[in-house]
Amino acid sequence: MSNIQRIRQELPKYNCNAMLILNQVNRLFATGFSSSAGVLLVTDENAWFYTDSRYIEAAEKTIKDANIKLVNANDKITENVKAIITENNITSIGFEEKYVSYAGKNDWNDKLGIEMVPANDLLNKLRNIKSCDDLDKMIQVQRSAEKVFNEILPLISTDITEKELAAELIYKSLRNGVDDKAFDPIVVSGPNSSRPHGVPGNEKLSKGFLTIDFGLKLNGWCSDTTRTLCIGKPDEEMVRIYDTVLNAQEAGIKAVRGGVKSIDVDTAARKVIEDAGYGDYFGHGFGHSLGLEVHESLSASQSSKDILPAGTVISAEPGIYIPGRYGVRIEDVLYVTETGSENITKLPKSLLIL
Length: 354
Prior knowledge:
35% helix; Creatine Amidinohydrolase, Chain A, domain 1; four-stranded antiparallel β-sheet
């Protein structure tokens, strides 16, 4: 079953008989085609994809389950959509309230003249469940990330800056055939490693912990990987902190299964860190779902009310960060099953000392 067909099946649950999809990532999910310009309309019987001359040829070649319509400078997509609505007696249409501005929603509402129904969850819930093909693509980009990580290891020394190492990571990623980075890489060393989302600077790598957090994109799908290394011999407390984070991650992973409350997963990992006396130094959540975006709709944290469904993909990334001293984060990516999870990250997790 195609994703457009899956969307069509869900329409009655949201009390609408059509779905207007404007967000680029949601259009990619629905059609397998990514473009900066486009509108997808899905009804209970058909679908239409509107785009301009820059993308029409590629859209016609790629999209299989929708009518492809060229919109030129004299056309208005709203008028095209309005015509379909009138012809098909559509009375309510779902829209992505998470992405459409208040003004944008009012503009579409005025021009279409029908009820606009918030239906972003329709797409989120479908995107949360990965097909076998989706999972294969996520594993493929994860393997590319792991290859890149291993290729930059020989470059790590106190003669290179954080920013230079980040640049090498991006360069080698593109050389290995990925499409793009999923986010700006985090490369922080020494005292800077205490910043969970620190920005690589012009300082040369310091002795001590070095955290590398990066994600890549391939065919629209994202990876997300973090490893903390040590440049030079770590002291006893550094080893203790690293082992605590690793044990916390493993405790959280053991708690993962389809139908579990995500807060319970976070709690399992957090308890390990708290019992070791570092509870005040773990400020973020255990993980987040990912797929076509590196951060999707589910999270595993103390504030989350999410239930993790079987078939979703989440990160497992607890950490300890002591301001002004150092920090440790270890991140894997998990495919959630009915009885547990499959870890699709294959990089070693023992502390690597360079």
